[in-house]
Target: LysE/ArgO family amino acid transporter
Amino acid sequence: MFASDLSSAWLAGFTVCISLIVSIGAQNLYVLRQAVQGEHVRACVTWCVISDAVLVAIGVAGMSQMLEQRPGLAYYLTLGGAVFLLAYGLFALRRMWLAPDAALNADERADKRSLAPRSLMSVMAALAAITLLNPHVYLDTVLLMGSIGAQQQGVSRWTYVMGAASASLSWFVLLAFAGQRMKGIFANPKAWRVMDGITGVMMLALAWWVASGVMQMD
Model:
């Protein structure tokens, strides 16, 4: 019976987490972009998995109740997320329109990237901002997943967290693999402009959606 309870808790964590993270958002697009570029992919996947597990654990441990009891904190988190998403979307559209290397061929583009790769710190700082300044992280991972996990009893709560971490690991490894397989497509500079355009539009749409939530809080 105990083993059955643990299995059910693990499956619940896996199922809920995978259903929430498969939607294309800022974090997924960023990891996909890094996978296509081949820059610090393992570090990105590691960060995403650990941050998901920690945030779910924090939610299970009681932060979900704290956010519900302190709407002011949720307000400022949401406002900061809207501003960040707006800035991220505008920068993506700026890359699409300016695209200083859009006329380069694939070999020249690859050479340019190899000469000036982004540092691990800069890549991880951007990913951390995308993760922690996105209000969806707190609404979905902490509040929703944390509330569900908090209903588990005893050690099953942490089995639930492990299930969520397993889902996160499976998804981001798959995303990284997909990015590696798509390198041929992104050898064409126009593909990068399309990706930046899609990213920009999606981030602006998310910023508008989040800002609408902020106005409802007033």
Observations:
- The radius of gyration is 19 Å.
- Confidence is low (pLDDT under 50) at residues 101-115.
- The longest helix spans residues 41-69.
